[in-house]
Amino acid sequence: MTATPADIDTTQDRQERRLQAAKRLLTNADTDAPVIEYCQSVLDPPGYERSCAQAQLDACAARLALAQADVSTRRTREASQLLLTVAGGRP
């Protein structure tokens, strides 16, 4: 049985899942609300298919905002690790 295009897990699919997982983690993070709102707006899926390069840029922008926050929680650290993976770094 051969895989159909719908069965193939692409890099874009994996990146989008990681971005959405990071967004879910940040939803319940107890930290600076404006930082979380910014990160969630960056991580919102656009109205079009996000390219790999755009996903990397969005992940970098969200990680930078989290790094500048005064408070770090378990959820923000986990989200940051997911974003690092999307950005092309090693967790």
Structural write-up:
It is a single chain. 65% of the residues lie in helices and 0% in strands. It has 91 residues and is an all-alpha fold. It has a domain at 43-86. It has helices at residues 11-27, 33-43, 52-68, 74-87.
Based on helices, strands and strand pairing, what is the structural class? mainly alpha
Strand content: under 5%
- Helical coverage, percent range: 55-70%
The count of DSSP E runs of length 2 or more, i.e. the number of strands, is: 0
The helix-strand sequence is: HHHH
**Intertermini distance:** 35 Å
Mean pLDDT across all amino acids: 85
**Which overall shape is indicated by the principal axes computed on the Cα atoms?**
elongated
Largest sheet: none
**What's the gyration radius in Å?**
14 Å
Instruction: Supply the number of helical segments.
Output: 4
Spans of 5+ residues with little confidence (pLDDT < 50)? Answer: none
Describe the structure in brief.
The protein is mainly alpha-helical and 91 residues long.
Key terms:
single chain, 91 residues, mainly alpha, 4 helices, elongated
Question: How do the strands and helices of this protein lay out in sequence?
Answer:
Elements: H1 11-27, H2 33-43, H3 52-68, H4 74-87
Helix pairs in contact: 1-2, 1-3, 1-4, 2-3, 3-4
